[in-house]
Predict the structure of Glutathione S-transferase omega.
Amino acid sequence: MTITGVNSNVLKKGDPEPSAPAAGTYRLYNMRFCPWAERALIYLSAKGVPTEVVNIHLMEKPEWYFKKHYQGKVPALEHDGRIVIESGVIPEYLDDLLPENRFLLSDPYEKAQQKLLLERLSVVVPAFYGLFSLIKDASAKEEKLGNLKKALDEAEQLLQHEFFSGSKAGYVDFLIFPFFERIWWVSDIAGFAFPSPDHPKVAKWFKATSELPEIARVIQPLEKGHLFIKSYADGKPDYDV
Ligand SMILES: N[C@@H](CCC(=O)N[C@@H](CS)C(=O)NCC(=O)O)C(=O)O
């Protein structure tokens, strides 16, 4: 196992800054339920590089964390005295740094196409965030589920192969999966079906992708996802569930 600490203690205000990661190893500042951080986590897992995960309490951030990320957000990647932030930048950085095992293709046209596909698929992101209000108040259910359906219709149409990245999972799958996973978490709580037979290609992709070893070994169990989502919807996110 090259990834350690995925479920480690959550560091908060007052906790000391960990010493620098050992040379040649990677450290990911993470929050287990953050979809943006999960993009970087999945990428590191797929790269198979030695990685230590450090979980950050986002409501009570350690003072030193602002040296890692100027806004105090996750993810941030630290290695060999360098820090890289942003979930859209870290994967590309890792591909440039470790080109023997690339996921974002190096051919300029293919690379552009993959990025455009991710851009189009990103309709699922606002559709997902819009679902939170349903957990406490079902009054806008029709509208929110209508937005989700439109986003999933788009994804169904964009899925031309077994994976979004082609016959093998890659950049697009790794970066968009965390949002589909969270739609799945919310579906049980807010009372709608996902994955659903209305989007058969997406349903098949979701199952296959969630079972990939590089993903399965780093994601959170469904029950924990439920607990976190409920705490978040209550306005008191519980980072220790
Ligand atoms: N644009 C950033 C977004 C990251 C983000 O919003 N992370 C959230 C957690 S899911 C965060 O750190 N929130 C803490 C804060 O905003 O203070 C990225 O893609 O990396």
Summary: The mean pLDDT is 97. The chain has two domains: 3-101, 108-210.
